[in-house]
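Show me any protein, fold above all:
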Amino acid sequence: MSQNIPPAQLEAIKRAIAAGLAPLRADPPMPYSTWAEKHFEMDEESSHRRGLWEPWPFQIGWMDAFSNDDIFEVDVEKAKRVGYTKTIVGFGAYNASHRRRKQAIWQPTDDDRDSFEKSEISPAFDICKALAPVRRAGRDDDTIKFKRFRGSVLHLLGAKAARSFRRITIAVAILDELDAMDQVVEKTIDPFTGAVGRLEGAPFPKVIAGTTPRHKLTSHIRRRVECADAVMQYEIPCPHCGVSHPLRWGGKDVAHGFKWENNDPNTVRHVCPHCHEAIAQADYLATWKQGLWVSRCGNYTYDHIRKLWLDGDSNPRKAPRHVAFVNVWTAYSPQRTWPDIVREFLEARKAQKVGDNGPMQGFKNETLADVWEEEFEHTDASLLRERAKTDIDIPLQIVPEGACKIVMGIDTQADRWEAVAWAVGRGEEMWPIDYRVIYGSPAVQEEWAEKLDPVIKTIYKHVNGHDMPIDAVGIDTGGTNWTHQAYNYCRARTHHKVYATKGDQALGAPIKMKPSWVDVNAFGRTLKRGIKLWRICVDTAKDLLHGRLDQVKTFGRGYVHLNRNLPPQFFDQLAAEHRIRVRVAHGWADRWVCPSGHRNEVLDCTVIAMFLCQVLGLHTTPDSTWDAWERDLAPNLFSTPPVLPAPAASVETSAPPPDPEPPAQAPVQPAPSAPASRPATRFAKDEWSRRGFR
């Protein structure tokens, strides 16, 4: 039969059969570091040299942990220039050609993903001969987001959108530069949890998180390291005493680590913490191959030469399920000279002395592989709770004397809405009068009307008996899951003064930024310029709010009242964020950041309320108008004041127990003095007491 087939066609058939059978042939198992030495080649586009990969001794530990099926999670807290990026590129090739495992690599943004694919993945994969048998030639099989191999796939994703953590099934999840990713992705999930969720069902699941650490308060990697079964440091033997120890930066207050003379970087030496003898970088490079990864607890050691995990007595043992490699700073790298490290530090210290912390933060993060910690602005929730006890005691949903307008901010979450109503008086004096959590699905259009209409149509009762509707409502339009549902809801209720809002972190912008018209999908068609979207400069609003909470101490203009009847989480969420210095696209900026694991919905609702005050022009309303509004809310024959409960007696923990027989008549609580910025109260002392004020 084969004699009738032309030779060229016969050869093509043989090649096709060989290619089809190739994925069925299993290569002898080998650790990733061994495979990389044989198959992974360096390209000239992203490396200083071309040729086979030669792992540095300290890299082998985490490389072999990548490929060890006994290990579920590997964390690498590393500096720049230690070759970590190359190790994850090679591991992608290893999974595709040797393990045939589906995998995904997340970068902080889509732009980072594109740059990573063009500068690292494509050049390295194109010259890797081990990938040739599993590469596919189709146009749709090799894109910037997705690469298909025989028996496996590679997803390349940005971590900014929640959709990047859905609809993929993988066995290996790699998060590169984890600390540069958002704390919570589109208010739904943190990136690490999102990536781990894609591994469910894999026979040998693996998650890898590596990053240059950033701020201590918001560091994803530091939280993962704290959860590790084994936290590993690379120790080298001292050529003088033979005792192993990690390389340390040290400092002026310790006797070991980097030391130099007379501000001369060229004299730098590393001092052993045991014998206090010094070595130069050349001495380190002569002994670095004898180094071992040793856990801080002393129960784990990885011998990269024998490829064995050992216990504290040097006996073989099973690898830990969760391992973290830390203290991987640039002193270990042969690409960075020790004098250059010292020179960078001296320049950063000089800048810090004149008030510029940026270079020192960069040195600590990117050179020392350590988190940055500094003094930050923060309002203490416990102080807010204490202050609420001394504020006017009035039930929730009752508008106090002096408040003339009501605004409500609504924050949208994946499974609920949270609403906070603030009553506003002269000079933007504010009282929280309502806090609600409304459970439902924002992704279902019908639930918006069902759940939110009764909330935004609430009629509150003024302390003088007048009914007061909400004057304006602002709704966070949320993430991509429910954006158009929010648009549709707001568009149909503009007559109720319902505003579609979105937070913005523009530097130095006003709270009320310029709105824009956006298209809306409704009834199966797109409405051009369907809704006006209002952007709120959240950092400016939070600066103003926290400034008022911390600095305005007396009732009146700018004072933010608190209510003792609010639940504890209200105060925790209002004070959830910290103002820290972070790196942005054009340098450094001060940002309000919510630590992972904390909720800040009350703060977001309050920011929306402050925006609504500006939309209504309350910050520029003249006193004559406020006088008229207050007259309209004064008691009259037709107003029926609400029945308020009697004020509760204050409880002192150190006070003696009460007398068994209470006095015949409790003394009347004195009324608070009237704010200087408001006209004197019209009520006598006994009237204040009757209405429930203290």
Remarks:
- The chain has 18 helices and 29 strands.
- Confidence is low (pLDDT under 50) at residues 648-694.
